[in-house]
Each structure stands twice: as structure tokens, then as C-alpha cells.
Design a protein that fits this description.
Layout: E1 3-4, E2 16-17
Antiparallel strand pairs: 1-2
């Protein structure tokens, strides 16, 4: 699972924080 700007989701249209 990866962390996104909006939160851990399947396919988020935001920046991906590794």
C-alpha cells in the first residue's frame, strides 16, 4: 500500500508519496 496526498487508496489522481 502506498500513501497518497489524499490517503491510502487504490487509484488516486494525486501525488504519490513513497
Amino acid at each position: 500500500m502506498r500513501l497518497y496526498e489524499y490517503g491510502p487508496r487504490k487509484h488516486n489522481k494525486r501525488r504519490v508519496i513513497a
